[in-house]
Amino acid sequence: MIKPIAFLLLVFMVLTPVPAKAQQLYQELGGREGISQLVESLILEIATDDRIIHYFADADIDRFHEMLTLHICEVTGGPCTYTGAPMPEVHRGMAISASEFNALVEDLIAAMEAEKIPVGTQNKLLAILAAMRDDVIRL
Amino acid sequence: MTRFSVVGVLLASIAVVAVPAQAGKGRLLATGGATTVEGAGGGGITPWATLSSYAEAGEWGATVAYSEAGVDDFGLQVQGVSFTYSNRIEVSYARQEFGLDTIGGELEQDIWGAKVRLAGDLVYGDMPQISIGLQHKRNQSFALPQAVGARSDSGTDYYLSAAKLWLNGPFARTWLANATVRATRANQIGLLGFGGDQGDSHELMVEAAVAMFVNRHWAIGAEYRQKPDNLSFASEHDWHDLFVAWFPNKTIGVVGAYTNLKSIAGLPDQKGWYLSLQASF
Ligand code: HEM
Q: What ipTM was predicted for this assembly?
């Protein structure tokens, strides 16, 4: 009985996330330029995604591109200040479902693949964005 | 096979008729896990708190699986089918055929399973996903188990599982861990019946699994399963395996494993391979 429990404790200790160094992820993503390019790729993915494209029918895509770039720049430790509205405010009334959130995650993964971003860097960004899910869905 | 097909078609019809929701695959790749040898969603030898298929809230999904294990003196074949609704409830059926290659003969077992997610989400939030489940097992070849001292030809396992996924774990890889506590009186998961001269009541057993996703499609991992020891005719051992899993897309899942089942029915050193294929709809 002791052996498996000790084993599990070890596993949970090893898996407790270590905070990434400031700016490191921003740089891995290629800085402001790289993030802007990534968001452009993401918009192209969303544009062909029937599961969520309807949300963006009336959106100002240039603003979305600029604001999402700023937002990702800021949360990855870059030298930017996000000037848009807070996440719950932006997505309130949209009633985005858990499935639709995952659809966007999949589009982002596809965009990161298209931009040849390594899996480790992808995971760091995904972990940061995943933590915001409650501020985005079912509002 | 015919019996299996009949049950499958039946379950499928129930799911289609009774559930006024869309088939859907709203969950992320690989989050349905694989299909265990007992039919529940999980790893290979232990059920996980995850539910099979890719059904998210308001969606239903179905999974069919075929698995084979070959160790020195035995061969196991499992056909399984499961349905998940709303990432909340999973219902499963598995038929096991266990060939006694050296001794001669075959053991057969049917397993009906249900699992309910109580709380948490595998991927999102700090809390692990927690599920409870049961597996009602009916041994269909009780003559041999009875001859070696098993008390009954059917039994029910109850389990509690917790699973957590870290998108950005060590080495900037995605990791998954699952712990399961099971109350059981099954001998060799029920293939040798239930209860025996050394014990006939439910005992708590610990099971664990860890996996690391090398990338989105490939994972490697290990599993452990503690087992009771109710029959004096041959001592029963815990199981271990090391696995590689491949999820090319949300339809197909393939698991290959190296297993060490130690001694079974007195025959020592049962090492070998395990292969499982599943399709989710
Ligand atoms: C963690 C995930 C998400 C983040 C970080 C995020 C971030 C943002 C940001 C920064 C903006 C711009 C806000 C502004 O213009 O002031 C925005 C707008 C928007 N988001 Fe999200 N979002 C996320 C998930 C989603 C999902 C899952 C959907 C839909 C499926 C969605 C739909 C939209 C739409 C439609 C707009 C445009 C609103 C408009 O301009 O009318 N977002 N999001």
A: 0.89
